Amino acid sequence: MWPVSALTIEARPSAAVLGDHADxxxxxxxAFGEAPERFDELILSVVRRYASYVHDLPATPQAHFCVxxx
Length: 70
Known about the structure:
mainly alpha, single chain
């Protein structure tokens, strides 16, 4: 088992996490195919809430998704 100090990862704001995936969000916006405000209302709002929920923390300390950002 790793000491707790070895498992700590500095959390970043969810906006920074989403910023890391700006290209993917842009592609989603294009694929959505409706007005930008509809994308913001229906899709981006859900993506932002989900990012705030799961944030930047890894899923496991040693296996899958063990780096910052999952």
